[in-house]
Amino acid sequence: MIFRAGQFAFSFPRPTMIMGVVNVTPDSFSDGGRFLDPAAAVARGLEMIGQGAEIIDIGGESTRPGAEPVSEAEELRRVLPVIERLVSRVEAPVSIDTRKPSVARAALRAGASIVNDIAANRADDEMWGVVAEAQAGYVCMHMQGTPQTMQVNPVYQHVVQEVRGFFVERLERLQRAGVDAVQVVLDPGLGFGKTVEHNLQLLAGVGRFTKLRRPVLLGVSRKSFIGKLLGAEVNARLPAALACACLAVKAGVRLIRTHDVAETLQAVRMAEAVLARRK
Q: Catalytic residues, which ones?
């Protein structure tokens, strides 16, 4: 199994990849405001690469529950200087976390190699045309609703089956839009239109998504469902996130998106070492 993103190619099976998160926003739930200055964001990206991240994900619009969208111009103002400076200094893919095709296009022209699209539930195929044209990598994430509505009353009959069905249907639509399967990573979208119970069921059933012959990415870092379940504040959720990451690796997940690169990498490498010795 191969994942291609622009000039980059990764062959699986291989050690779990870590995607480091840098939010260039004033209002993201975890690190909003810390890296709004481009120099600080670039420094954070370089730090994460030094800690072992193999992909850096840059976001200029908060997607926390209830977050208001920002204009295209503002999002571009936030992310383009960071992407341009980062790609000139690292030999690793930079991902743009955006819902806007215009932002994705500009970011890819600036040197990004992956589009991380929380709005893969979109009705039109403009974003996919952008990805196809650039031969970029594409993170296809499941979300019910939008960031403004997703946590109002998310309902599923069988959440694991429904998310899997979404992936099957999206892979077909992406192919028709010119995006080859080798460009696609699947993300079940923990916390995006899911209750605590839905998230737990997705974590328990995440191995079903690995059967679709595409790498699966899990983003559980500091998510609010951990706080609701365990009563932990944002900056006290790392132990639970590491537990989720290790269980996901055991189930076959091969990319972990996190704010805490060094700790997550150590945890998953330990899990991999043990799993490699199973008889």
A: 223, 257
